[in-house]
Amino acid sequence: MRILLSAIYPYAFLLLYLIIPFDEYFRAPPNILLAILVVAFPFVVKKEDLKKLKSLPIAIFLGFFAYLCLNSFFSGRWDGDFNVIKKVLIAVGLAILYIPVADVNPPAERAGKINSAIIFSSLAAIIFSVYNFVLITDATGSFALGDSPQVIESLLIDRLYLGLLSTFSILISFQAIQKKYHPNNNYYLANIFVNALFIILIASKIAIVSLFVLLLIRQFYGQRKIWKLVIAIGAIAAVVGLFFIIKNERSIQINQESHKNPPAFIEKSMTYELRAVVWKCAQNVINEEGFSLTGMGFNTTKEKLVSCYETQISNPKKKEKFVSERYNTHNQFLDFYLSAGFIALLLFLAFIVVSVFSTRKQFLPTAMLAILIMYCLVENLFNRQIGAYYVGFILIVLMTTAKPAENNRIKKI
């Protein structure tokens, strides 16, 4: 029985990450796979596997999760907070469930097991989205890219998370490319091209910014060469330019009546406007409540924001939209502070800072942390199950790079 479970376990884990983007279409399989992993875990894990958990960043994240549970329970708001706490549990749980997986340190010509699952998952999501786009284009008789409703409707999952998955895929493929010629390099280069082109076509702004930031970070690794300085300057200029475009998105929307053809990159998008309103209301709530050590709860935070939308938004249609959608803070740091207090925010920041110092000499985990920070600035990752899955992947990368010797050991069954 143990031998059979040990053989099935890694493939169940990898299949989970392969089908994550299809969660809204097939809700049962991910939950079934998670259940299989939880049940099989005690039978396949070994004492030496637990050494992988001897990582200070992982320990801090576990402490962060424990604090959320205790704070919520003793504050009498467990029922209201459980939905978010459950997502944090999924992230840390996936990291723990991964420790029995013997992911051999791969030769440079191939990616590791879970990395391959991310690559194929991204390609599957792209193929599905492109197929939908073709069907919608054929049905409507029109063709539009960028932020058009046509593109948004065709995407398998929310554009933000699809961009995150493609960013993961590009990063993994880049790491797998050998310096010397190898046939597999062509596949990884093709995958980078496909994912980068897809990110541009769907106008995932945060993904585009992330790629340029990762390009900048990469210049600090390896030998110092003059061309790296040129790339770094170019990356900085691109990020600044992108932020300028996004910041001026609202003014272009307001004046788009005087422009027959506004740029596709920002056409019909309310990304900046949405976050500008939400963040302003979050700031108002902070000013009203004052310094908070333990927070007001995740549900109460949403209620406070909705109240702010009702009083601060003058446009009736916009007000109705914000109130009915009950938009959250769209910033994970703000959400943790308002909902769980300064202690929660401090623990989460401590996890990030300690992780940066622990892995600063390795590009991949550093890049993953940069992605985590950037996405937490514009999204509440723990409000969506798919966000929890991908934070779990980041934790796995941090854990395996912190203890490569244990992770790269081939198990003998």
Mean pLDDT: 82
| Order of H and E elements | HHHHHHHHHHHHHHHHHH
The whole-angstrom Rg is 22 Å
Helix content: over 70%
The count of DSSP E runs of length 2 or more, i.e. the number of strands, is 0
Report strand %: under 5%
Shape: globular
- Total domain count: 1
Tally of separate helices: 18
Largest sheet: none
The N- and C-terminal alpha carbons lie at a distance of 12 Å
Which helices and strands, and how do they pair?
Layout: H1 2-19, H2 28-44, H3 56-74, H4 78-98, H5 113-140, H6 149-154, H7 159-176, H8 183-201, H9 205-218, H10 226-247, H11 249-254, H12 271-289, H13 298-312, H14 316-325, H15 332-359, H16 363-378, H17 385-402, H18 404-407
Helix pairs in contact: 1-2, 1-5, 3-4, 3-15, 4-17, 5-7, 5-8, 7-8, 7-9, 7-16, 9-10, 9-16, 12-13, 13-14, 13-15, 15-16, 16-17
Give a description of the structure:
The chain has 413 residues and is mainly α. It has one domain. Helix 7 runs antiparallel to helix 16, helix 12 packs across helix 13 and helix 15 packs antiparallel against helix 16. The N and C termini lie close together (12 Å). The C terminus is likely disordered.
Relevant terms:
mainly alpha
In short:
The protein is mainly alpha-helical and 413 residues long.
